[in-house]
Amino acid sequence: MIEEINPYHFYNQYEPRQPQPSDRILMFREEQVAMIRRPEGLDYPRFAELSLTQAEAAALIFLFRINEEAYFLNETSVDLSFLCWFPIAQFRELKPNYLAMAGITAVQLKRWRQTRRFCGICGQALCDSPRERARVCPQCGRVEYPQISPCVITAVIDRSQNKLLVVQGHSTGRRMALVAGYVEIGETLEQAVAREVAEEVGLKVKNLRYYGSQPWAFSSTQMMAFVADLDGSPKLTLQAEEIAAARWMSTEELPENADPLSIGHQMIERFRQGRL
């Protein structure tokens, strides 16, 4: 999965530090990221490769660290003529994994910063905390942390037929997926699973079992995965505005996915292997 970057280690602790020559700099325009072509493949520019003024260097935002190399966000205008621009969707295919993990996590933090420019209580411009990864109002003291939305994803299995429910959303094209949705106010994760399955495909489930979790920066969510057995009729009633198509698939019908990016695709692959 995208967060599995061995032998590298991702450190998300906030560190007030100055950029070093080998540190990587992330720059975005709209939904594109600036990258540089190297003989070994695509990479992010190093601090030493950018001709930043002292003021521009001081304005870099520390994001996180992978092993001993820090990653910074540049929000100022600099000369980018020697760089190439790629859509952030390419993080789904970018190798090695640690570069993809770094890129999409930077996107998550960039989006958070863009939507936390002013205080929602008093309207004052927010500033960066010197001690933690947070936006702080200098007038009323309100603190804003990065947005992480809880989301459940469920592998629904018809044990009598040994088939897995696979869906396709309107925004995912032909990509196979599992039933998923945001956790609403006042409900447990288990209640969210039952509600989402009922809403999206009109089914009831039982025997819920927790599978695992995954940070999914593409949508600023924390995915919490469950396996559930079909309870009752397998007849599907689709929520048309959410689900484009859905079908029950056997292990023989599912295509192999040797390197699943998401926890949902990992569950699909494990069902195909008879391990779910």
Automatic annotation (TrEMBL):
Molecular-function annotations in GO: metal ion binding; NADH pyrophosphatase activity; RNA NAD-cap (NMN-forming) hydrolase activity
Broad enzyme group: hydrolase
Record-stated family: Belongs to the Nudix hydrolase family. NudC subfamily.
Needed cofactors: Zn(2+); Mg(2+)
GO biological process terms, semicolon-separated: NAD+ catabolic process; NADP+ catabolic process
SUPFAM superfamilies tied to this protein: Nudix
Source species, domain of life: Bacteria
Cellular component terms (Gene Ontology): cytosol
EC nos: 3.6.1.22
Protein keywords: Hydrolase, Magnesium, Metal-binding, NAD
Source organism per UniProt: Holdemania filiformis
Record Pfam families: NUDIX (PF00293), Zn_ribbon_NUD (PF09297)
Protein name (database record): NAD(+) diphosphatase
Domain Nudix hydrolase: 147-273
Reaction(s) this enzyme catalyzes, per UniProt: a 5'-end NAD(+)-phospho-ribonucleoside in mRNA + H2O = a 5'-end phospho-adenosine-phospho-ribonucleoside in mRNA + beta-nicotinamide D-ribonucleotide + 2 H(+)
Entries under PROSITE patterns matching the protein: NUDIX (PS51462), NUDIX_BOX (PS00893)
